[in-house]
């Protein structure tokens, strides 16, 4: 999670609700985004009509590797949810830009486990008619 808040571009995309978030000043204390825009939980509390962007980070799908039980796998999921009024930004689309930043931080990196994280998939998700986005799934391998 600390890796997530170390990226100023990612934090700006989450914090600033205008069409030019990457042009805004750096966020001095990025930890203020925790439990406001970044949740290390499967639930984002109180999604209201307020235009906002969220990421929830979830560990899930723990299992032994069937061909070698010395190893286990799990998944780290990033749910990126943004109010549909915030999707369009100068130079792109907010959820896609967030996905790019997450991928720069995590794909093929050694964060947890014994190997490098590898992206498994990304799918469109919807919390309701106003908040939609994507789920990115990365695979983790570690010793059992």
Structural class: alpha+beta
For the sheet with most strands, the description reads:
5 strands, mixed
CATH class bucket: Alpha Beta
Task: Quote the average pLDDT.
Answer: 89
What shape does the CA trace take?
elongated
Summarize the structure.
By secondary structure, this protein is an alpha+beta fold. The protein has three helices and seven strands, in the order ααβββββαββ.
Key words describing this protein structure:
144 residues, alpha+beta, five-stranded mixed sheet
Layout of secondary structure:
Elements: H1 2-5, H2 8-15, E1 38-39, E2 53-64, E3 71-83, E4 88-89, E5 92-93, H3 94-106, E6 118-126, E7 131-143
Parallel strand pairs: 1-2
Antiparallel strand pairs: 2-3, 3-7, 4-5, 6-7
Description:
The protein is an alpha+beta fold. The chain has one domain: 2-Layer Sandwich (STM4215-like). It has helices at 2-5, 8-15, 94-106, and strands at residues 38-39, 53-64, 71-83, 88-89, 92-93, 118-126, 131-143. The chain has a 5-stranded mixed β-sheet with strand order 1-2-3-7-6. Strands 4-5 form a two-stranded antiparallel sheet. Strand 4 (88-89) and strand 5 (92-93) form a beta hairpin. Helix 2 (8-15) runs antiparallel to helix 3 (94-106). It is elongated, with a radius of gyration of 16 Å.
